[in-house]
Structure prediction request, 353 residues.
Amino acid sequence: MSALKFQLAHRRYSLPFRTPVRTAHGVWAEREGVMVRVTDEAGAVGYGEAAPIPWFGTETVEEIVAAVEALGEWVTEEQLAEVPERLGCLRFALAGALNGARGVFSERRGAESPPYLPVCALLPAGRAALAAAGPKAEMGFRTFKWKVGVGDLADELALLDDVIAALPDGAKLRLDANGAWEARQAVRWMERAADRPVEFIEQPCFTAAKEGAAAVRKTEDVLRGLAEDYPTAIALDESLVGATDVERWIAGGWRGVFVVKPALLGEPAPVLARLAASKADVVFSSALETAVGAKAALRAAFAWKPAGKPRALGFGVYPLFGDKILDGPFGAPFFRAEDVERLNEEAVWNALT
Prediction:
């Protein structure tokens, strides 16, 4: 057993978004989470972020704070490894902090790692997407995500062609329903998307685990049926809260897209290794975290080796906060690996005092 100990500190935060985010889950006005810092006995420091999304099925901020306080001021690696898997966001934060303290990411990047990755632009829900599309296209974006399942179904269906027309030639459009639709509504969207430039429909239906195993299985059967019956791909998002969910869908033979939010995966490395072994089609996505969580998540994205051309990152969400030091990389059509490494975790920690 290791005798090496780490000093553990944490800061809870509540940060208003510059612009509230409208999804099928409602209006999301502020980001709550917990920042952690570990310092080894030689003074090396690492930072991590627990950014839960409780309506996905993650733990709550209160549970994270209680678990960190229960660990105490001085901890060993073995104690941190024993944090329950159900606290996946906290495990992600602790893994990132330990990696930082160890300097795991301080080595030079391999020649095979991409110098940059494409990014998907996030369009607001409703008709606001029309005004937002042009400026995003002028910036150079060619993949766009439109939040649907927010307004009236017929209105959104009627607006789809207008949104597509507002995009540049050759652009790809992702439709993100955040699990808003019932099966019949999802069928209408799948029929409408079939002959249009829709890259995939993200989480058309969703049932939270708290609704019971039978209800979850019914919804998952609907998703599999839609994926088999229509040409437009379906992507899982809310259905992938942690390693157990990812494994279940791989074992079930899911051939659609896996939208992976590393911040929700606990320790991402083994989960991503399993996805790679199954040759999964993966999109890395933001959990609307600060620069600390974004840095750890994007490092995982740059280390990923896709079977084909990489899909655009779901990280075109910044600026999110009033203080730019809190943001991940600026929402440009490409992220460079060197820009990710420039994100200042200590500055974020200090800004939360």
Summary: The radius of gyration is 20 Å. The mean pLDDT is 93. The domain at 116-351 is CATH 3.20.20.120 (TIM Barrel).
